[in-house]
Design brief:
Structural class: alpha+beta
CATH superfamily: Gcn5-related N-acetyltransferase (GNAT)
Mean pLDDT: 92
CATH class: Alpha Beta
Distance between the termini: 23 Å
Shape: globular
Number of strands: 7
Number of helices: 5
Bound molecules: coenzyme A
CATH architecture: 3-Layer(aba) Sandwich
Number of domains: 1
Helix content: 25-40%
Radius of gyration: 15 Å
Order of helices and strands: EHHHEEEHEHEE
Strand order of the largest sheet: 1-2-3-4-5-7-6
Protein backbone atom coordinates (compact mmCIF):
# COMPACT_ATOMS: atom_id res chain seq x y z
CA UNK A 1 0.00 0.00 0.00
CA UNK A 2 1.26 3.46 -0.87
CA UNK A 3 0.19 6.96 0.04
CA UNK A 4 0.29 9.24 -3.01
CA UNK A 5 -0.12 13.00 -2.86
CA UNK A 6 -3.55 14.07 -4.15
CA UNK A 7 -3.38 16.14 -7.32
CA UNK A 8 -5.85 18.18 -9.31
CA UNK A 9 -6.43 15.28 -11.74
CA UNK A 10 -7.79 13.25 -8.80
CA UNK A 11 -10.71 15.64 -8.39
CA UNK A 12 -13.31 13.22 -9.81
CA UNK A 13 -12.15 10.35 -7.64
CA UNK A 14 -12.77 12.49 -4.54
CA UNK A 15 -16.04 13.81 -5.90
CA UNK A 16 -17.42 10.29 -6.36
CA UNK A 17 -16.12 9.04 -3.04
CA UNK A 18 -17.45 12.04 -1.14
CA UNK A 19 -20.91 11.63 -2.64
CA UNK A 20 -21.16 7.89 -2.08
CA UNK A 21 -24.10 7.06 0.23
CA UNK A 22 -22.18 5.79 3.26
CA UNK A 23 -19.52 8.42 3.20
CA UNK A 24 -22.34 10.96 3.24
CA UNK A 25 -24.15 9.13 6.01
CA UNK A 26 -21.02 9.19 8.16
CA UNK A 27 -20.08 12.78 7.44
CA UNK A 28 -20.90 15.78 9.55
CA UNK A 29 -22.20 17.52 6.42
CA UNK A 30 -24.56 15.02 4.78
CA UNK A 31 -25.60 17.05 1.78
CA UNK A 32 -24.81 15.94 -1.75
CA UNK A 33 -22.01 18.14 -3.01
CA UNK A 34 -22.39 19.66 -6.46
CA UNK A 35 -19.50 19.39 -8.90
CA UNK A 36 -18.73 23.08 -9.03
CA UNK A 37 -18.42 23.58 -5.30
CA UNK A 38 -16.43 20.35 -5.06
CA UNK A 39 -13.95 21.59 -7.65
CA UNK A 40 -13.50 24.90 -5.85
CA UNK A 41 -13.04 23.18 -2.51
CA UNK A 42 -10.68 20.55 -3.94
CA UNK A 43 -8.37 23.08 -5.57
CA UNK A 44 -7.90 24.86 -2.27
CA UNK A 45 -7.73 21.68 -0.19
CA UNK A 46 -4.81 20.18 -2.09
CA UNK A 47 -2.88 23.42 -1.72
CA UNK A 48 -3.77 24.17 1.85
CA UNK A 49 -3.76 20.66 3.27
CA UNK A 50 -0.17 19.72 2.85
CA UNK A 51 -0.92 16.17 3.84
CA UNK A 52 -3.68 14.95 1.57
CA UNK A 53 -3.00 11.44 0.26
CA UNK A 54 -4.61 8.80 -1.88
CA UNK A 55 -4.48 5.28 -0.50
CA UNK A 56 -3.23 3.27 -3.45
CA UNK A 57 -2.87 -0.48 -3.60
CA UNK A 58 -1.55 -2.25 -6.70
CA UNK A 59 -2.16 0.86 -8.79
CA UNK A 60 -5.78 1.15 -7.66
CA UNK A 61 -7.05 4.22 -5.84
CA UNK A 62 -8.78 2.74 -2.80
CA UNK A 63 -9.43 5.76 -0.60
CA UNK A 64 -7.84 8.77 1.01
CA UNK A 65 -6.37 10.04 4.22
CA UNK A 66 -5.92 13.69 5.07
CA UNK A 67 -4.46 15.66 7.97
CA UNK A 68 -5.78 19.11 8.58
CA UNK A 69 -3.88 21.25 11.06
CA UNK A 70 -5.87 23.35 13.53
CA UNK A 71 -3.65 25.19 15.98
CA UNK A 72 -1.28 22.40 17.03
CA UNK A 73 -3.56 19.46 16.41
CA UNK A 74 -3.76 17.39 13.22
CA UNK A 75 -7.34 16.34 12.49
CA UNK A 76 -7.57 13.08 10.57
CA UNK A 77 -10.09 12.37 7.86
CA UNK A 78 -10.13 8.95 6.20
CA UNK A 79 -12.29 6.94 3.86
CA UNK A 80 -11.88 3.71 1.91
CA UNK A 81 -14.02 2.72 -1.08
CA UNK A 82 -16.51 0.04 -0.21
CA UNK A 83 -14.98 -2.67 -2.39
CA UNK A 84 -11.59 -2.30 -0.66
CA UNK A 85 -12.75 -2.33 2.96
CA UNK A 86 -11.83 -4.89 5.58
CA UNK A 87 -8.33 -5.41 4.19
CA UNK A 88 -6.48 -3.38 6.77
CA UNK A 89 -5.93 -0.50 4.35
CA UNK A 90 -7.26 2.20 6.67
CA UNK A 91 -5.14 0.92 9.58
CA UNK A 92 -2.03 0.93 7.43
CA UNK A 93 -2.82 4.38 6.06
CA UNK A 94 -3.13 5.79 9.61
CA UNK A 95 0.23 4.28 10.58
CA UNK A 96 1.91 5.62 7.46
CA UNK A 97 0.57 9.12 7.67
CA UNK A 98 1.85 9.46 11.24
CA UNK A 99 5.36 9.10 9.92
CA UNK A 100 4.95 12.26 7.83
CA UNK A 101 4.65 14.62 10.78
CA UNK A 102 7.12 15.62 13.53
CA UNK A 103 7.46 13.81 16.85
CA UNK A 104 5.05 14.71 19.66
CA UNK A 105 2.31 15.73 17.24
CA UNK A 106 -1.22 15.46 18.54
CA UNK A 107 -3.81 13.75 16.32
CA UNK A 108 -7.56 14.02 16.65
CA UNK A 109 -10.60 12.53 14.94
CA UNK A 110 -14.27 13.33 15.20
CA UNK A 111 -16.43 10.27 14.68
CA UNK A 112 -20.20 9.82 14.72
CA UNK A 113 -21.23 7.77 17.76
CA UNK A 114 -23.02 5.28 15.58
CA UNK A 115 -20.00 4.86 13.30
CA UNK A 116 -18.69 1.89 15.31
CA UNK A 117 -16.37 0.75 12.50
CA UNK A 118 -14.56 4.05 12.56
CA UNK A 119 -14.40 4.14 16.34
CA UNK A 120 -12.86 0.64 16.26
CA UNK A 121 -10.41 1.72 13.56
CA UNK A 122 -9.13 4.70 15.54
CA UNK A 123 -8.98 2.82 18.85
CA UNK A 124 -7.00 0.04 17.22
CA UNK A 125 -4.63 2.73 15.92
CA UNK A 126 -4.03 3.95 19.50
CA UNK A 127 -6.57 6.78 19.74
CA UNK A 128 -8.65 7.24 22.91
CA UNK A 129 -12.04 8.85 23.32
CA UNK A 130 -11.37 12.14 25.07
CA UNK A 131 -14.82 13.73 24.97
CA UNK A 132 -18.32 13.25 23.59
CA UNK A 133 -21.31 15.28 22.61
CA UNK A 134 -24.80 14.16 21.63
CA UNK A 135 -23.84 12.60 18.32
CA UNK A 136 -20.06 12.54 18.09
CA UNK A 137 -16.94 11.25 19.76
CA UNK A 138 -13.72 13.19 19.92
CA UNK A 139 -10.70 10.87 19.80
CA UNK A 140 -7.08 11.79 20.42
CA UNK A 141 -3.65 10.32 20.09
CA UNK A 142 -0.18 11.67 20.80
CA UNK A 143 2.69 10.69 18.58
CA UNK A 144 5.53 9.89 20.95
CA UNK A 145 8.57 9.69 18.72
C1 LIG B 1 -13.77 3.51 8.49
C2 LIG B 1 -13.12 2.96 7.22
C3 LIG B 1 -12.14 4.00 6.69
C4 LIG B 1 -12.35 1.65 7.59
O1 LIG B 1 -11.62 1.21 6.43
P1 LIG B 1 -11.04 -0.27 6.26
O2 LIG B 1 -9.89 -0.21 5.31
O3 LIG B 1 -12.14 -1.20 5.93
O4 LIG B 1 -10.51 -0.61 7.74
P2 LIG B 1 -9.45 -1.73 8.12
O5 LIG B 1 -9.63 -2.95 7.28
O6 LIG B 1 -8.09 -1.12 8.18
O7 LIG B 1 -9.92 -2.11 9.60
C5 LIG B 1 -9.34 -1.50 10.72
C6 LIG B 1 -10.19 -1.75 11.95
O8 LIG B 1 -11.44 -1.08 11.81
C7 LIG B 1 -12.47 -1.88 12.43
N1 LIG B 1 -13.38 -2.42 11.42
C8 LIG B 1 -13.20 -2.49 10.08
N2 LIG B 1 -14.30 -3.04 9.50
C9 LIG B 1 -15.17 -3.31 10.50
C10 LIG B 1 -16.47 -3.88 10.55
N3 LIG B 1 -17.12 -4.25 9.43
N4 LIG B 1 -17.08 -4.01 11.76
C11 LIG B 1 -16.46 -3.62 12.89
N5 LIG B 1 -15.21 -3.06 12.92
C12 LIG B 1 -14.58 -2.92 11.73
C13 LIG B 1 -11.75 -3.02 13.12
O9 LIG B 1 -11.32 -2.61 14.41
C14 LIG B 1 -10.55 -3.19 12.22
O10 LIG B 1 -9.49 -3.86 12.82
P3 LIG B 1 -9.50 -5.49 12.85
O11 LIG B 1 -9.66 -5.91 11.43
O12 LIG B 1 -8.18 -5.83 13.42
O13 LIG B 1 -10.66 -5.87 13.70
C15 LIG B 1 -14.16 2.59 6.14
O14 LIG B 1 -15.12 1.74 6.71
C16 LIG B 1 -14.88 3.81 5.54
O15 LIG B 1 -14.37 4.40 4.60
N6 LIG B 1 -16.07 4.16 6.07
C17 LIG B 1 -16.87 5.27 5.54
C18 LIG B 1 -16.24 6.62 5.81
C19 LIG B 1 -15.98 6.85 7.26
O16 LIG B 1 -16.76 6.48 8.13
N7 LIG B 1 -14.83 7.48 7.54
C20 LIG B 1 -14.41 7.84 8.88
C21 LIG B 1 -15.03 9.14 9.28
S1 LIG B 1 -14.29 9.67 10.78
Amino acid sequence: MRLIKAKIRDSNFFFNLRNSPEVRRNSINKKKIDLKSHQEWFKKAIKKDKIFKIVNKQKKDCGYVRLKKKSKVFFVSISVRKEFRGRNLASKALTKIEKLVPAKTEFAAIVKKRNIISKNLFEKAGYNVSSKNKNSLFLKKNKKK
